[in-house]
Amino acid sequence: DTGVSQDPRHKITKRGQNVTFRCDPISEHNRLYWYRQTLGQGPEFLTYFQNEAQLEKSRLLSDRFSAERPKGSFSTLEIQRTEQGDSAMYLCASSLSGGIGPQHFGDGTRLSIL
Amino acid sequence: KQEVTQIPAALSVPEGENLVLNCSFTDSAIYNLQWFRQDPGKGLTSLLLIQSSQREQTSGRLNASLDKSSGRSTLYIAASQPGDSATYLCATNMDSNYQLIWGAGTKLIIKP
User: Fold this and answer.
1) What residues of chain A lie within 8 A of the CB of B62, using their CB?
2) Distance of CA A3 to CAs A27, A32, A74, B84, Å?
3) CA distance B82 to A101
4) What's the whole-number mean pLDDT along residues B52-60?
5) Rounded distance, CA B33 to CA B2, Å?
6) In this complex, is the C-beta atom of B49 within 8 Å of any C-beta atom belonging to chain A?
7) Rounded average pLDDT over B12-19
8) What kind and span of H or E run contains A80?
9) Are strands A104-105 and A65-68 parallel, antiparallel or unpaired?
10) Minimal Cα distance from B35: which residue of A?
């Protein structure tokens, strides 16, 4: 068990560019979550997957955001036409189904928009 | 809509003291409640998870309690150490299929 892995750890980009983040969950976990966290706040839910199916999307996830989990393993989160307000830490978590066990988090990808 | 509040936002105590962190929530129909630790610039580490049918969970020097009727949970840290310095967040899960709803956290500083 190597834990949840996120790549890259940091991303700096100019406003208007597209960015893509990757998350590799714990291998036996079939649930995968994306959260966004700004400084001094708790995380905010963005979306989650059960295997390859995207089951829930927050209203925070505008049409500039898209997430995929094509084979039910790793996931990607893409932000198109980035804006200043997208600057945040993007966290990925995974868990087993049923909500019995805890969500395990990666170290996040910190996005800075210039 | 569930709201989770953590007070105080920051806490500084001398090393060796026992301390209690508070978490309150507005909707008592939770599925479970988790306590997490977050170090600066890092992700979140799950500390304790309490199912709605449970009253408390213990791990080492940590003890978390849950009182659904009053909408409160506490995290008790015994014999605090400088390495306990971090931000502690609580989060509720309203449904087994649902996302976590978070407090803003309490930043804890343990002074040597």
Assistant:
1) none
2) 9, 13, 13, 22
3) 29
4) 95
5) 12
6) yes
7) 96
8) none
9) unpaired
10) A102
